[in-house]
Amino acid sequence: MTERNSFRSEATEFNRWVKDWLFKPEHKVGTEVLEQAVDIHLISLYKELNFHELLEQHSDPKTLAAALNYSDSAWIALNAMLKRLSDRHDFIACIDDTQECKRYRPIREPVDKSDELAAHYKTMEQLGAEYVAPLEFLEFGRTHFTQALGLDHEFMDRVLTGQEKEHNETWNRATNTDPLQDIHGIMGAKAVEMLFEGGTILEVGGGTGNGMRNNLDYLRDGGKSDSLERYVFTDVSMPFILNTRREFKGRYDDINCDWRLLNINKDWAAQRIEADSTDLIYGVNAAHIAMHTVDFLKECKRALRPGGTIVFSERLRRHPSDMAPREIVLNLSSYHRTAAIRHPEYRPEHAYLTADNWLRAFELAEYTLCEVWPDKQSNDSYFTDQYAAVIVGRV
Prior knowledge:
alpha/beta; Rossmann fold; 7-stranded mixed beta sheet; 15% strand
């Protein structure tokens, strides 16, 4: 990359803001509780599905999924689950880590710790009522695990695109109420407020509005909303677009907003996203679901004006095979499991990438500059596994 120093002052300011203002002790405690709760649910599923005996005959997730009559891609969810358990517990061992589909050996029956969940709920409630939301999301994934992987392969895809009205509130709380998730939107909005110099903002994968809400609030508070000529909110789901537009009615009437369908995996020009038409492209945990990461970045580059900026607020993996807590639910989506086209340099696993993966993808897409904010040290004391960060790039 060239011009490595062009973000220097902004990066320094961002790191200071993260340490002094954004990260709170509640985030650290909440993250630790969430990690423990994930393992409790996974162990419970392990016992309920009789994996201790099944793994004796079906040591790899593909044959295990077939034995359970799960969908063809369900092995990816099982692989992530078993890898996490083998990394963190001694009742199961990973005996072949050389392939994408790994092999496992059961050692002994694990101890069910479901009775500890009540204490975790209590701890979260003491942090604040909204901190219960991530635990509720885990419970949702635990409850619908077999349904989504076996009986109704498209169930979670419908939930994540707003087509299951009965569960819309669950997804809305998971993306807007959960403080551990909202931190992504806040972090991204701060980066936008710092880097935006006027013109048009295009948001990809806007979903239930977490990104737009934080963005427009930060631009107002930073005195930059007057320089925002147009905000283009896009998503692949019409229900999300309509619901978010309805929810925001009256709140941002002074902003020129455009609401559009956009499938980031298809030709953008054919979807009326013109070349050199926007000044900043933004997304909150949306960019990682692109099928072809580098091609997606090239579409963004084509849509940006010269000197345009990318801000992607993303959950990053420290190691490519780490299972993020939210993936107890997201891995139940067939799209989440299978959309990403693997690549050894920048996409070794499905879904979330590492910081180095993102830097390499931006380099291959020939961006002038790409950095990951904040620096690793700022995250270490709060997020021991996956962590929130912002990928910023410039054409």
